[in-house]
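Request:
Um, any thoughts?
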Amino acid sequence: MRVTYFADTDTTFIELSDGPPVETRELGEDLYVDVDAAGHVVSLTVEHAQKNTDGDTFSYRRLPSKMSA
């Protein structure tokens, strides 16, 4: 997974997989999802990211799987 913020357009792009997108769907104002041929989510785009998110405090945390216990 990769998260890229483009300051010049105030856009955040979240890539969830390397699969090629075949369709972009609008989920709401300023929020788009790209899906592959099987309908799996490939990426998300948030436009006007500073207005729509708290991008200055972005963090990522991976929690342990319950199955590994």
